[in-house]
Amino acid sequence: MSADPDEELVRRVGAGDPAAVQTLVARKLPRILSLAVRMLGDAAEAEDVAQETFVRIWRHASSWRRGNARFDSWIHRVTLNLCYDRLRRRRELVTDDLPDMADPSPLPDAREEPQRIEQALQAIAPRQREAIILVYYQEMSNIEAAATLDISVDALESLLSRGRRALHMILARDGVHD
Amino acid sequence: MDARRFAALTEAYGSDPRRWPKAEREAAIAYASSETGQAISRNAGALDALLDGYRVPHPGKALHDTILRTADRYVVRRRRQRFWWLGLGLAGIGLAGAVAGLALVTVVTPEVQPDHYVLDANATAFGDAGPDTIEEDL
Fold first, then answer.
1. Which of B8, B11, B76 sits opposite A18 (nearest CB)?
2. DSSP structural state of residue A133
3. ipTM entry
4. Annotated domain spans of chain B
5. Is residue B70 within 8 Å of A54, Cβ to Cβ?
6. CA B111 to CA B78: how far, in whole Å?
């Protein structure tokens, strides 16, 4: 297992080093926030999730020990869990079994292309969305993303393929993509 | 690497080689330069370009500062408390040491005998010769 680039920093945070706290926030906040924004499609809710994620980090920093996952994978898992809590609260998810189908309803009218991409991402199944976000936007390797989602690399690849196909269909239907 | 695997790879990871699995990257890059590879890459690249356009704003200063304040509550204050408890612990150890030392001195040190003895009127060189111990034989 390769070295965790965050391990020493987390140890210093756990010891209460204010400089380490600042470094950790500067290093991880943009990643956590971008993950939450893309998962939830709501900037205000994403900021709440980012704050909650950091509270978990502060609570666990002194006792955090690397198991099978890197610190970065762990905070991604924490953030994703918090996002799912909010998605459930929105009643998008009525059971623990997440739907694996894209929302068939047409996208609301959005004039800008990036907004259409955002809406298309929100319309696909959450598991497909998180796979795409981890690999595409969070720049995780397939192995890191699979570990974060606690699935095999083959299962990750399947989620990515189905997610991209669903995005392609939605965007083609709305005339954004050929 | 063949057309089928290359198509599956780009369907999942897109057309950017940086996202391709490390184990297959070299072979996939070689295949991408073929005519079939280029056509498959173009197809996946169109969606990649759209996804690239979806950017999210960087965290604002207010959020950054709020998070640092929570750190102060949970992390930095914990360190201060740890120092406080450490100080209290050291003081306790010192106090316990002082009490133990005092007890030791009390138990171990023999009773101090006076280095002089004041004789009273009833005392003799052999001890107290007072009325309780010696009956006068008159």
1. B76
2. I
3. 0.79
4. 3-52, 59-117
5. yes
6. 51
- Cβ of A151 under 8 Å from any chain B Cβ? no
B64: left (phi > 0), else alpha (psi -120 to 50), else beta? alpha
Domain limits of chain A? 1-96, 98-178
d(CA B95, CA A39): 57
Place of tokens 């080689």: B17
Chain B closest-CA separation from residue A92 CA (Å): 23
Residue listed under structure tokens 């200063």? B61
Fold of the domain spanning A98-178: Arc Repressor Mutant, subunit A (1.10.10)
Are B67 and A13 an interchain contact pair (Cβ–Cβ within 8 Å)?
Answer: no
Q: How much is the CA Rg of chain A, to the nearest whole Å? A: 17
| Cα A119 from Cα A123, distance rounded (Å) | 6
Residues in chain B: 138
Domain A1-96, CATH: 1.10.1740.10
**Could you report the per-residue pLDDT of B78-136, keeping only the tens digit for each?**
666 666 677 778 888 888 888 888 888 888 776 666 666 565 666 555 555 555 555 55
